[in-house]
Amino acid sequence: GAVVSQHPSWVICKSGTSVKIECRSLDFQATTMFWYRQFPKQSLMLMATSNEGSKATYEQGVEKDKFLINHASLTLSTLTVTSAHPEDSSFYICSARHDSGYGYTFGSGTRLTVV
Amino acid sequence: DQQVKQNSPSLSVQEGRISILNCDYTNSMFDYFLWYKKYPAEGPTFLISISSIKDKNEDGRFTVFLNKSAKHLSLHIVPSQPGDSAVYFCAASRGRGNTPLVFGKGTRLSVIA
User: Which of A58, A82, B73, B106 is least surrounded, with the fewest CB atoms within 10 Å of its CB?
Assistant: First the structure.
């Protein structure tokens, strides 16, 4: 149980275009989804906390107008990288808390390459 | 400010021996700690966790030790296997609410056959 499905697993886009990443909780309701970014050989850095039905909370230094987060339902949160640039190339991962134990479930991640 | 620190970027261990991965934290409000294994371009895989009310938790080959006074935890893998080769992340959280995990920078473990 407690599976988070993340799509796409990888995407290549042209500079200036937008990319949407989806995370779905398949067998539980995720009132809160966390979005992380990982640069090569670096830690997973929290970008924002996505709350169902309300605005996301962004970490310091993360541009909310560039990384649009929508959490319209209890099972779906999306991250849209707008006007992507090569420096946005990274590995993006979502995560949700679930009531099974004290668990955090992660998506499989999205490798974004902006060319 | 790095609240969770893994000071060893890499570790090499002979197959069959013990692997010890270390993690330090600075935030005394953290009350739950987790270890994840991660391969490139994949999401983290949960290994083992420990609550701050305990000092040890064991699951098969994996044991996590917590020293609250030193704000230090360690993951022991014994015996180490080549399939254990991956990057291991230490993570911490505060409370049972919807708070995010804070990750260390990871330690790359290489188990040599």
Answer: A82
A109 to B42: CB separation less than 8 angstroms, yes or no: yes
Scored b (16 or more CB within 10 A) or e, A33-65 reads bbbbbbeeeebbbbbbbbbbeeebebeeebeee
pLDDT in tens, A42-84: 899 999 999 888 889 999 999 999 999 998 888 999 999 999 9
Q: Is the dihedral of CA B72, A59, A90, A27 positive or negative?
A: positive
Taking a C-beta distance cutoff of 8 angstroms, is the pair A92, A68 a contact? no
Q: What is the pLDDT of residues A3-37, one digit of tens each?
A: 899 999 999 999 999 999 999 999 888 888 999 99
Contact criterion met (CB < 8 Å) for B41 and A109: yes
